[in-house]
Structure formats: structure tokens, C-alpha cells
Amino acid sequence: MSIGTYVTHSTFSNLTQTGVIPNPPHVFPAAPKSKVFVLSRDSTVSHKLTNASFAVVELASLRDIRIQLSVNTASCVVYDIDIAPNETKQAIEHLWRLAIGIPVIAISNDISCGNVRNAMRCGASEFCSKSFDGERLEDVVERALERDRNGNPSPMEVRRRIASLTEREKEVIENCLQGTVTKVIAKHLDVTYQTIDKHRKKALRKMGAGSMVELSNMLFRTTLSSLGCDYEFNA
């Protein structure tokens, strides 16, 4: 039997009886299914996406996304800005900090130019009317998922790299991105300059960046400005 010959069930049984067992075929794990997080009081939104074969996760609040988010899965958020029209900017910024760089699709009953422009300025990557048909929403969601999984590196990959950092490495690198000098970071953490340098180098290696400038450019390309952390030291 040559290499690459297909082994049928009966052939495999005969080989087993003779004591000659071929190497079992390697089984690759299925790719994780993309997730669509939905935060809306309108249940038809989730129903339409579920019917379109998307893996839908309904959120009760913005903070719930941190529990559900997977760093190895392309994701996006469908956010109903009618829930709190005056808090659109804060809500989208909060989503970005909890789920770093995740594409946000704003939906609303108000499709006026002013409302659309405001949602996009607040950070939404797409805007869709809640009176949409299922096919229109499906296209918008698919574009958002493609945006999350594509790029060099992709936002999804950047989130995976950030998740590999320790809390101390995040703390150091976030403050370096904010322009905080090593002396101030070392003082607040009560460690030596050498320790700060060590954490910075390890964090840069995990992020796949050769310098803080390269890391900053990487984050900028994925529409991020930071690691999504709240660490901040004042001189």
C-alpha cells in the first residue's frame, strides 16, 4: 500500500487483525465560529441574525461582553443606540475598551443624516436602520467580521496578543504609550528602572513589535490608541 492510499473501513479492520495499523488521519479542530454580540431591546434583531446562521450572543449590558469575548474568534457588536441616545459616544468607547478594537454596528430607528454622522464619529464602523431586511443586516455584519479578522495584524490578532500580557506588562506598556517616562512608572510601582525595561521588552516581544513606535503604529492601524486599560500615572 503506497503512501496516500485511501484506507476503507473494511481494509482498516483487516490491517488491525494482522497487527499492521496505519497512522490515523490527523483531525484538525474546527475553526471557532464568529460571534455577533447584540445589545438591543428589539428581539427581532437577534432573530434575524440567528436565522442567517450567525452565532449570536445577546448582551444584557455593555460589561457583559468581557465575559463572552473570545480572543481567537472574529467578532462584532450590534448596538442599539436608541437605548440611550445621549450616551452613544460613551457606550461605544466603553465597548472598545472592554473588547479592544471590536467593530461596532450602530442600529437605530432614526436614520437622519445627523444621527448617522454622530454614530460614525463616535466610533461605529457601520450604521443600519432597525427597519432593515435580514439580507441587508447580514451584509453589514459580514463586513464587520471581515474587518475584525483581516489585516496584518488583524484587530482579532491584536486582542489575542494583548491577552497574553501579564497585568504588570499591560500596566507598564500602557503608560509608555501614554508618554509616561520610565522614572515615573518605576516610582509608582516601587521598582527599579531595570525592572520596567524588562517588562517593556517582554511585552513588546509578545506584541510582535520591535519598539514602542512600532507598537503604537500597530495599534493605530487597527484603529486603537491604547491597550484598552485604565492604568495612568501622573508625575
Q: Quick one: overall form?
A: elongated
Count helical runs.
Answer: 11
Most strands sheet: 5 strands, parallel
CATH architecture of the largest domain: 3-Layer(aba) Sandwich
Report the uncertain regions: 1-16, 20-31
Spatial extent as radius of gyration: 23 Å
Q: What is CATH's topology name of the largest domain?
A: Rossmann fold
Overall average residue pLDDT: 82
Content-based structural category: alpha/beta
Q: Which sequence of strands runs across the widest sheet?
A: 2-1-3-4-5
Describe this structure in words.
With 235 residues, the protein is an alpha/beta fold. The protein has 2 domains: 35-151, Response regulator (Rossmann fold); 164-221, Orthogonal Bundle (Arc Repressor Mutant, subunit A). 47% of the residues lie in helices and 10% in strands. It contains 11 helices and 5 strands. Strands 2-1-3-4-5 form a 5-stranded parallel sheet, with helices on both faces. Strand 3, helix 4 (88-98) and strand 4 form a beta-alpha-beta unit. Helix 8 packs across helix 10 (193-207) and helix 9 (182-189) packs across helix 10 (193-207). The longest helix has 16 residues, at 134-149. The chain is elongated, with a radius of gyration of 23 Å. The termini are far apart. Mean pLDDT is 82; it is low at 1-16 and 20-31.
Descriptive terms for the model:
235 residues; alpha/beta; Rossmann fold; Arc Repressor Mutant, subunit A; 2 domains; 5-stranded parallel beta sheet; 47% helix; 10% strand
Which helices and strands occur, and which strands form pairs?
Layout: H1 9-17, E1 35-39, H2 43-51, E2 55-58, H3 65-68, E3 75-80, H4 88-98, E4 104-108, H5 113-121, E5 126-129, H6 134-149, H7 155-163, H8 167-177, H9 182-189, H10 193-207, H11 212-221
Parallel strand pairs: 1-2, 1-3, 3-4, 4-5
Helix pairs in contact: 8-10, 9-10
